[in-house]
Amino acid sequence: MTVSVHTDGPVAFVEIDNPPVNAASFAVRAGLMEALAQTEADAAVRAVVLLCAGRTFVAGADVREFGKPPAAPLLPDVVLALEGARKPWIAALHGTALGGGLEIALGCAYRVAVPEAKMGLPEVTLGLLPGAGGTVRLPRLVGPVAALNIMASGKPVGAARALELGLIDAVLEGDLRAAARAFALDIAEADKPVLLNARDVPAFDAEVLHQRIAAIRAKARGQNSPEAVCEAVVNATRMGAEEALAAERALFLRLKDDPQSRALRHIFFAERSVGKSLAAGEALPSEHIGVVGGGTMGAGIAAAALLAGFCVTMIERNAEAVAAGHARVVEVLGGGLKRGVLTEDAHARCLEAFSGSDEYGALASADLVIEAVFEYMDVKHAVFKALDAVVKPEAVLATNTSYLDVGMIAKAVRKPSRVIGLHFFSPAHIMKLLELVIPPGADPDAVATGAALGKRLGKVTVPSGVCDGFIGNRIMSAYRRACEYMIEDGALPAEVDQAMRGFGFPMGIFEMQDLAGLDISWAMRKRQAATRDPAQRYVDIADQLCEQGRFGRKTGRGWYLYDGKTAQVDPEVTALIEATSARKGITRVSMSGDAIMGRILDVMQAEGRAILAEGIAARAEDIDVVMVNGYGFPRWRGGPMFMASEGAEI
Ligand code: 3HC
Ligand code: NAI
């Protein structure tokens, strides 16, 4: 039975059991209606506790049903019916009460939760808005500003905060069933609270609400659902509940059919199914992580591992570099403490679990070592040789190389099958993406160990074969080259950047290069000059900029001119670009934003198809997951390969 009813004296327990996350699928909705009828009819029942089996309270509507015709009873009607119950229902929350799950709880007279429970309305992240009364009931319960923050961010709040907000009535320690029963007995004789629908929205500061709405609009970058959430909250403040519920329904149905929601649902499921085929190997238990290199990436990786509860030893070249690497990690952790994402205790634990050394012997007990030293094959070989001499025979060795051949790096050790690539993105403790690079002949257990690490770090881990740049950097190199061709052919950097922003990227490719610094890729191009295919078109504009000391933001000049943080178009750069086109005999032809973005997308998709054909990526959706999580591709467009499969226009 998906929904069962057990009575225990005057308290009835209605239990939902719909693994894995108790989504409110048809059987749950129908079961709740039956349970309602049964408990209303049973004269002995004075109060009803609604709870869930398994790991969580209802985590939302069943997203898999969204592509199908809706089957009654619909969730909004179920929530209305629960709200109309004569007996008090108490939603007893554990795990994650999300979306339609929280809306069910809002239909109950009371909500109680275990201290670890989380509650949220994440529909916006699926291109939707809460569609079962959440936009109407939550503002009436916690006020429109707090409700807007919850709905527009999509982020859950913890039980303590939910109690502060008035979202729940009590935090219950100990066994939830027993504690909820005691709570039910306490309130069974009391009058039922006024229905949320019958309440007015509590007093609020209209100016603050408008400021929040303006900020949400500014951040939406073309995504429709945040705007709909704002509209619904304004409706909740201006309309009676019935009218506001009807307006919510209309907005929900419109968004459900919006291609943006299809795209977001595609990414949601793609992220959850990525790498499932890697289950072949057995992950080795890992608690002690070694990181070699304490620069930008090494420090970020070390911080990520510490935050996930690992013990970390960092190796650097000498005592001075150890101190510098140590300081970087301490700074990242301190930032977490300052922002309140890390408690004092957790911060202290991280520091205690962290050590640095310039002796490889300190890695003798490490289960997994991640190398993040300079991007030169000979430096990597030296590091792996040194590691091979000291680490346990079963330890997994990983490289964070951006472009080098992981199989070649592996040749430095006696058992190359223990070497994998773990390609993190900067800042490594924040960015969600991790490419798990699998060289031919890699031990499945080493691969599984890398995948398990990714999971524990909370990363979206995408398997990739070995090629220059793996999945993401290879595609980025291809479209960056296309952008360089376009500026030589007639577009200007600001036009390319504007086209990318207009499409939904947080920034364009030239702004991004200015931010990262032009000197590093210049150094790489100089190294590669001897081996470059002379038949391939080469644009030297970036080299000319670097020769003038224009390394981007850090030097105040790059593709743009910087006044503090503001970028301005620099006529000198425009002149340099035009002169380059003239030198090469190219007649410049201007391009529209759509033509520019169309070209970028074509190149991404063509490179993606090549990557699939070569078996570098296992599935087209893996490429989408990489581009969305590592390269700023707008999530609500679903990724380049999804757009190609849908024949989607810009
Ligand atoms: N519908 C259908 N399937 C879902 C689902 C949902 N709402 N949420 C999760 N699943 C599935 C996943 O696809 C996965 O399936 P698989 O095992 O076959 O791959 C399985 O449940 C487990 O999910 P996770 O791997 O994500 O498990 P975690 O433990 O890491 O996370 C979670 C659990 C926090 C609940 C996370 O799954 C999640 O955030 N789910 C989505 C929550 C959500 O967006 N809810 C709102 C839905 S829209 C809605 O409710 C509309 C309403 O307003 C009308
Ligand atoms: P970085 O220059 O900031 O740091 C490299 C660190 O390695 C330095 O602190 C240096 O002292 C140390 N080091 C050099 N040789 C060493 C050795 N033999 N033993 C111990 N330590 C040694 O470089 P960054 O940016 O952290 O890059 C490191 C690696 O990560 C490179 O392979 C790079 O391609 C890759 N990477 C970089 C990304 C980025 O955005 N910066 C993103 C993803 C990967």
Describe this structure in words.
Helix content is 48%, strand content 13%. Strands 12-11-10-13-14-15-16-17 form an 8-stranded mixed β-sheet, sandwiched between helices. It has a 6-stranded mixed β-sheet with strand order 1-2-3-4-6-9, with helices on both faces. The radius of gyration is 28 Å and the shape is globular. The model has no long low-confidence stretch (mean pLDDT 96). 1,4-dihydronicotinamide adenine dinucleotide is lined by residues 292-298, 315-317, 321, 325, 372-375, 379, 382-383, 400-402, 423-426.
Brief digest:
With 650 residues, the chain is an alpha/beta fold.
Write the layout of secondary structure elements.
Blueprint: E1 3-8, E2 11-16, H1 26-41, E3 47-52, H2 75-83, E4 89-93, E5 96-98, H3 100-107, E6 110-113, E7 118-120, H4 134-142, H5 144-153, E8 157-158, H6 159-165, E9 170-171, H7 176-187, H8 206-220, H9 225-238, H10 241-256, H11 259-273, E10 288-292, H12 296-307, E11 311-315, H13 319-339, H14 344-352, E12 354-357, E13 368-371, H15 377-390, E14 396-399, H16 406-410, E15 419-424, E16 433-437, H17 444-456, E17 460-464, H18 472-489, H19 493-503, H20 509-516, H21 519-528, H22 541-547, E18 560-563, E19 566-569, H23 571-583, H24 593-613, H25 620-630, H26 640-646
Helix pairs in contact: 1-2, 2-3, 4-5, 4-9, 5-8, 5-9, 8-9, 9-10, 11-25, 12-13, 13-14, 18-24, 19-24
Bound molecules: 3-hydroxybutanoyl-coenzyme A and 1,4-dihydronicotinamide adenine dinucleotide.
